[in-house]
Amino acid sequence: MAKQPNKTQSGTNVQEVRQQNAASAGQGQFGTEFASETNVQQVRQQNAQAESRKGQNS
């Protein structure tokens, strides 16, 4: 098999990976995309309900 430029032995396109890495570098940590979808009030309410159930079971 002839060696192709910008390809690893397993066939990964090195240039494409570098572009993806550069694009994702500006987005911060992975958790930021989920923050906008989280309803904080609902989570707190569910936590409170879980705590009260925990108290009832002991």
Automatic annotation (TrEMBL):
Where is this chain compositionally biased, Polar residues type?
A: 1-27
Composition bias (Low complexity) maps to: 39-50
Q: Which domain of life is it from?
A: Bacteria
State the protein's name: Small, acid-soluble spore protein gamma-type
Q: Where is this region: Disordered?
A: 1-58
Check the record and name the InterPro entries matching this protein. Spore_gamma
Which segments of the protein form a coiled coil according to its record?
A: none
Q: Does the keyword Transcription apply?
A: no
Pfam families linked to this entry: SASP_gamma
Family of the protein in this entry: Belongs to the gamma-type SASP family.
The record's keywords, sorted A to Z, are: Repeat, Sporulation
Give a yes or no for keyword Repeat in this entry: yes
